[in-house]
Amino acid sequence: MLTIEQIIEIRKSKLHDRGYEIVFPEDKIIWLTKRRTIAGLLILIKYHTASEADLVGANNRLQTIKKILNGKIDSSWIQDRYGDANKPFSELWTEEGFSVVHAEGLQGNRQYVLDPEDHEKLFNINAKSSRLQLSVQDKNNILRLQGGKCNFCGSYLFTKNSINKYTFSKDRVTLEFDHRIPIDRGGENIFENYQALCHYCNKSKRQMCFVCTETCSDSCALVNPSNSHIVLATGEDISDRLTN
After folding, report:
1. One domain for residues 114 and 151
2. pLDDT at position 30, please?
């Protein structure tokens, strides 16, 4: 079983061209590609179960971890609180490929779980290294196919760096690339499984996919809005919110 106290350092990756490494004794390394997933994983390693309340300042878990790791990590890499508190946990499997992390319960009362018996599996990088990294050309092609718009609401999309920080409803125009069928729900990591969404729609889709118990398919509006207007998770017709 791993403990936070065993960590030697948390650093920018030396073995890969991106991401971060949590270094344990005997040169054992957990590789993370997202900075925000560091906090989620550290909480799960220490406490085994966690909730979004742990990342919004509702308790002192983050501060406890920062105190233990003082001098072993750039303090700015762990925020005092996270506005979008599900991502540091959910991206442990959707982005980092850690299938041993799972969620229990419904949105708003969800617990994230990491069994100590599965700690050794965190050192396996196979799932993550096999994920497709979209090229600039791929991203441009996806945007071109969608007319430069969010595949759900139809808002014109822009990269974060090109958006004025004072832009009204910034979440509605911020470009994000989404797996139509989430990887953790059996989706393939291929070009055809990507779509461009605004941050607002992508976040809404992610939350809906969390609670869905149906099998993902083209018959769901969240997978292919040009083919269906029905959200399988709820049976809701969202044709009034789609532009396709």
Report:
1. no
2. 96
Residue 233 near residue 223, CB atoms below 8 Å? no
Is there a single domain that holds both residue 124 and residue 176?
no
Rounded CA-CA distance 77/244 in Å is 39
Residue 29 β-bridge partners:
23
Pair 71, 62: CB distance under 8 Å: no
Residue with tokens 């996806």: 142
For the residues 203-219, what does the mean pLDDT come to? 83
Which pTM does this prediction carry? Answer: 0.63
User: At 203, phi and psi to the nearest 5?
Assistant: -65, -45
Q: Which of 51-60, 121-130, 231-240 has the lowest mean pLDDT?
A: 121-130
Between CA 212 and CA 55 the distance in angstroms is 24
Domain range enclosing 186: 136-241
pLDDT at 44 over 90: yes
Cβ atoms of residues 23 and 32 within 8 Å = no
Quote the pLDDT of residue 51: 92
| Helix or strand (DSSP H, E) at 66 | helix 61-68
* SS3 track for 140-162: HHHHHHCCCECCCCCCECECHHH
